[in-house]
Structures are given as structure tokens and as C-alpha cells.
Amino acid sequence: MTDTAMGRVAEATPPGVARRIRGLSDRAIAWIFVAPTIFLLLAVNIFPLIWTIRLSFTNFRANRPNAEVESVGLRNYQRILTDADVWATMQATAHFLFWTLFFQVLLGFALAWLINRKFRHSDLWTTIIVLPMMLSPAVVGNFWTFLYQPQIGLFNYAVEFLTGVPATSFSMIGEVSLAPWAIVIVDTWMWTPFVMLICLAGLRSIPESIYEAAECDRASPWRQFWTITVPMVLPFLMLAVLFRGIENFKMFDLVVQLTGGGPGNTTTLTSIDLKREAFEKWRTGYSSAYAIVLFVTVFGLASIYVKALNKVKER
Amino acid sequence: MTRFLSGLARLRRGPWEMVASIAIGLGVVMLMQPFFLAAFTWSFLVLLTGTVLFIVVSHFPEDR
Q: Which CATH superfamily, name and number, covers A79-314?
């Protein structure tokens, strides 16, 4: 006993402490182990949430901590939900969210399907495809601003090469109609590999015997794809959409580096707007209400999504 | 439909979760649609009602 690490710990434990631990029930010992985590959760997640809810009903400004704080009731919520600028920001976020998820799922699944067909150097290709995901969003945002430069940017020259539209005739991040698509392209480029990896895990979890049985039943490759591959990868795909959806709803760094929310407010996503309200205009009460609106949106969406995911898993 | 209504009347989880999910979905669409400012204004109330309802009804018994 004394040779093992556990034995040494038991020997080193003072007799008083050992007696006290021996007197505790299993449930009490479990609580002792779980308590630090619960404490951290309460301190880092629950307390700030309750505090934010409380602040959302006040006119508190963090840059004037000594000023008198007055309760304003539901006025902050009223102002947010009747503000046309906030409405426009929500629409910009919806555009970004919908198209990034659409392209990432489409391309991620297609790439996973291709990579899953074993070919020469497939591992090397997987590593190369996954590279963008490993970069810092700030770095990605910075170098895509160079790629989007009308005079020197490679992206514009690639478009000119493919479509014949002169490279210097358009600016991806400077035009109102193109800027929302510019951020969609960069986010898709960066995060498609993430969706691909999750889909690849799903594809590799399908037993080969199912395909063999389908072939014995003379099922065509098209039918095998729709009745075996897609349903069995669907839970993984839904998980990827959940992760990317939540992440993209609070997207900040990449877009700030790329467009700074411009031109005008066309790429001002909710997180950027919220940051401006909280730390540039210092309207802490108002921005707390804004944060609660976003929190309820994400929480509600995640709830029904998790329910749908469980249903798909049960099938 | 009758089963759904009877589930609602007997406070069963499935139908009530469906009602809450529809409220959440409707709230999100109202929040992000580009057509009516009035729908945007009321979206949060619908969304909050749906979310709170979802949390409450997820504790209802399952229909057997």
C-alpha cells in the first residue's frame, strides 16, 4: 500500500483530517468536489447575468460610477425595440448568420464527403484545409483587407480573371452592396473546415456493413447517399450548425478587423453595436438591456435546436 | 389534431413544447425580418414568452 501514490497520500494525511473525511457520506464528499465548480459558475456566469438584468432597468453609466442611478423601468427595452438602427443591425446579423451557415454546411459537407473517399495524400489535404481555422480572427481579418484591396488585392484579380469585371472597378469592403458578402466570404473561408471536421467524424462513424447491405439490395449510390449517409450525418451536422450559429451570432473580432462595421452601418452586427453602446457611448443600462435581448434570442434558439437534435438522435 | 389538443389540456410535455417552439421561432423571425417595425417591436415579448414557456413545459410529464 505504501508503495503506491494513493498509499503515500493516505500516510501523509494528518489523522484528524482522515478521521473527519471517513465520517462523511459519499454524497457529502461528492458535494465537496463539485462545490468549487458550482461556486465558479455562480461567480462567473450566474451573478453577472443577474446583475446585467438588474442594470437593464436602470440608467447606470459605467464611466460615471458616482452618479445617482435611477430606475427607468422598461424604457431601455422600449428604446431598443423601437430603434430603426437596432432593427437594421438585426437584419445585418440575420443576413450574416443565414448565409455563413448555408455556405459552411454546404461546403463543409462536400469537403468531408470528398476527404472521406480515401485517396493519395488525403491526410495532407485535410491538414491544409484545416489551416484557416487555426489562425487568429484578427490576423485573418487583417490579411483579407489586403486581399480585398481594389488595386493590389488578389481577390479582385481572381474575380477579374474569372468574370472579366475589371479588378479596380469594385471594392469588396468599401461598397454598401458588397461589404455584407465580403464578411460572409471570409467567415466561410475560415470556419468551413470546422464543419468539415465534424461531418468527417459523422461520415467515419457509419459502419461499412450498412453500405454493403444496401448494395446487396441493389440500392443506387444516390439512394444510399439520401437514405444512409445524410440521415446518419444529420446529428453531427446539426451540432455543427448549433456551434457555428451561436458563434456567428456574437461574431465581433473578424468583422471589426475587416470592415469596422462599415461602410455606413451595413456590416454592423449586433455584437459590434452592443460594444459601441457599452464602451464608446457608455450607456451601460441601455447596453445591458440590449445584451438581455440577444441572450434571450440565443437561449430560445438553442433550446428548440437542442430539442430537434435529440429527436434526430432518437430516430 | 385531437391528440395535440388533448395533450395541451392534460398539460403534456410534447404539445406544449411545440407551442413554445413555435413562439420562439415566430419571435426570431419577427426580430430579424426587414418588413415591419411593429413586428420587430413586439418580437422580444413573443421570444421571451416562448423561452420561459419552454423552460416551464420541459418539466411537464411525457405523453405515454
A: MetI-like (1.10.3720.10)
